[in-house]
Amino acid sequence: MIRRAARLSTIAAFAALSGAAQAKPPEPVRNIVLVHGAFADGSGWRGVYDRLTAKGYKVSIVQNPLTSLADDVAATRRVLARQDGPTILVGHSYGGTVITEAGNDPKVAGLVYVAAFAPDAGESTGDQLAAIPAPPGFVIEPQSDGFGFINLAEFKAGFAADINDADAAFMRDSQVPIAMSAFGEKVTRAAWRAKPSWFVVATEDGAIDPKLLRKTANRIGAETVEIKGSHVVFLSRPEAVANVIDKAAKTAAAKAK
Asked: For the whole model, what pTM was predicted?
């Protein structure tokens, strides 16, 4: 009986080892998709793009039309469809609302919010701002056609205080207006409830109150990094932001909910 028990124990041990050998390790994340926010386009991600591609990632950048939340989610899904495996989806500002909806795509392994909104299901960008309004120096001017621009005189102070005057002036004069109705469109399913998330709080943000950023990061259970920078922290501190994205890509599988 002792020999039989030992033999059964050996068989069980080999079976366990065999199962472990056959189990596939999590597929590494090598794809990154970057989503810009309102009043800007994808070109601001260049510094982050350069650093991530240097690390070997395949990086794609969404160009949101900013005509509606539905259109921006569709544009993001269009880029996600071109990815060849697990992907980290990154959103800045209003782009956080976009990735909260688009991030339900099965290819998305994790979400990175950069000075961003992250509404829950049934909630909009505007709902989050109603709780903690934007700082007074951030002024949006709605136009007669329903689109909005940032006030020219307040642009640098409210949006891009820590980049040089020439770059801020270019961003100001090339800003992309957003349909104001997009801020009222509701998220139908919040991806952060099912996907691991990371959050960059820009401590000097003049467009989204840092108190709202911290409250949002805490609510969604994100791993949070505070970086001294303006609302365009991804532009002024690309190395620090790229490092957060890199960490997300390396640890998303282990943190899967």
From this structure: 0.90
Over residues 155-175, the mean pLDDT reads 98
Q: Whole domain around residue 87: which residue ranges?
A: 28-255
DSSP H/E element including 96: helix 95-102
CA distance 53 to 26: 22
Pairing label, strands 147-150, 58-62: unpaired
CATH number of the CATH domain containing 150 = 3.40.50.1820
Residue 91 tokens, joined:
């959103």
Determine the distance from the C-alpha atom of residue 245 to the mean position of all C-alpha atoms in its chain, rounded to a whole number. 9
Q: Within a domain: residue 21?
A: no
- What whole-number percentage of the chain has pLDDT above 90? 87
Mean pLDDT throughout 201-207? 98
Our measurement of the distance from residue 144's CA atom to the centroid of its chain's CA atoms, rounded to an integer in Å, reads 31
**What value does the mean pLDDT of the chain take?**
92
Distance (Å, rounded) from C-alpha 33 to C-alpha 233? 17
